[in-house]
């Protein structure tokens, strides 16, 4: 959620005239995140988030926006898109596809507690279950084919140890892609800054622009790597158990998922190591940009290779 495209006040007023959200009072660019341009927008009719999509193809945006609406209608607190006067939820601003969505209350827990990790696990399982009734499909644009393309680009920027790590991990992951695991709609990016809390209660799940159809447990692995990892790349046992066990109370695991857990943690670490390396070495210009440390996920990947995690007990 960086600001790559600067929007002036008069441009925003003209854009909002197509909506019934009242008069513009205040707007502010959002620094967090790395993919799209985002602004907080306050009007006389409420509080909103404006997103200008910098890289996503227009053809993929309805999947994300209608998914948010579907989840919100089924009790998952997600930012429902706002339709304009012509009932369109996708518009154009500064030559970029743009959408206005509800701004949800609460704030992210950047140092999550055990109860907050449990709430995250429960919410993610509910999202997966509700997603089963969503009819649209979207492949994972950051899946194995993308990993291989990024590896070709990024290998020259790594030291010898990093090159060996990346090459060996790609070989490992390609051998596992035939595993039969439950699939469905995943969030794809459920980091701490994409969940909002009031105390220990989740008040919002945001940023669905990596949502797609993929392995459900991969989604939990993405979240656990961010919510439960320690400085050295290991997973905090109590926070991990809270997230996994709360998830399993909503959606029971199958035995194959227990066998795949460590490899999916590795796959999730690989995916975000590559994306952060790309952002580091090929940054996009912007007014406010935020590049995150790729070594966080290199350490997680290395630790999982050295000490494979087991799925915490969930009462099989």
Concise account of the structure shown:
By secondary structure, this protein is an alpha+beta fold. It folds into 2 domains: 9-102, Phosphorylase Kinase, domain 1, CATH 3.30.200.20; 114-306, Aminoglycoside phosphotransferase (APH), C-terminal lobe (Aminoglycoside 3'-phosphotransferase, Chain: A, domain 2, Alpha-Beta Complex), CATH 3.90.1200.10.
Give an overview of the whole structure:
GO terms for molecular function: ATP binding; homoserine kinase activity. Keywords: Amino-acid biosynthesis, ATP-binding, Kinase, Nucleotide-binding, Threonine biosynthesis, Transferase. Its EC number is 2.7.1.39. It comes from Candidatus Macondimonas diazotrophica. The chain has nine helices and nine strands. By secondary structure, the chain is an alpha+beta fold. The protein folds into two domains: 94 residues, Phosphorylase Kinase, domain 1, CATH 3.30.200; 193 residues, Alpha-Beta Complex (Aminoglycoside 3'-phosphotransferase, Chain: A, domain 2). The strands form three sheets. It has a five-stranded antiparallel β-sheet with strand order 1-2-3-5-4, with helices on one face. A two-stranded antiparallel ribbon has the order 6-9. The chain has a two-stranded antiparallel sheet with strand order 7-8. Strand 1 and strand 2 form a beta hairpin. The protein is globular and about 55 Å long. The model has no long low-confidence stretch (mean pLDDT 94).
């Amino acid at each position: 959620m960086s600001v790559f495209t600067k929007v002036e006040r008069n441009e925003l007023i003209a854009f909002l005239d197509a909506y019934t959200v009242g008069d513009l009072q205040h707007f502010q660019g959002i620094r967090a995140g790395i993919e799209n341009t985002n602004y907080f927008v306050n009007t006389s009719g409420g509080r909103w988030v404006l997103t200008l999509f910098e890289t996503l193809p227009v053809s993929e945006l309805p999947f994300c926006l209608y998914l948010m609406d579907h989840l919100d209608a089924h009790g998952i607190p997600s930012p429902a898109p706002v339709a304009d006067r012509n009932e369109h939820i996708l518009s154009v601003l500064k030559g970029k596809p743009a959408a206005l969505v509800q701004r949800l209350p609460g704030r992210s827990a950047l140092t999550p507690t055990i109860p907050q990790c449990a709430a995250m696990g429960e919410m993610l399982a509910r999202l997966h279950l509700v997603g089963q009734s969503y009819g649209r499909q979207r492949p994972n644009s950051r899946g194995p084919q993308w990993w291989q393309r990024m590896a070709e680009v990024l290998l020259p920027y790594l030291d010898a140890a990093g090159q060996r790590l990346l090459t060996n991990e790609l070989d490992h992951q390609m051998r596992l892609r035939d595993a039969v695991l439950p699939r469905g709609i995943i969030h794809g990016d459920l980091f701490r800054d994409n969940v909002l809390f009031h105390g220990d209660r989740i008040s919002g799940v945001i940023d669905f622009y990596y949502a797609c159809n993929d392995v459900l447990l991969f989604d939990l692995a993405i979240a656990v790597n961010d919510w439960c990892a320690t400085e050295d790349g290991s997973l905090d046992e109590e926070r991990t158990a809270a997230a996994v066990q709360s998830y399993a109370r909503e959606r029971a695991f199958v035995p194959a998922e227990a066998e795949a857990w460590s490899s999916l943690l590795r796959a999730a670490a690989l995916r975000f190591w590559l994306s952060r390396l790309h952002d580091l070495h090929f940054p996009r210009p912007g007014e406010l940009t935020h590049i995150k440390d790729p070594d966080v996920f290199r350490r997680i990947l290395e630790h999982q290779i050295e000490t494979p995690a087991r799925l915490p007990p969930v009462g099989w």
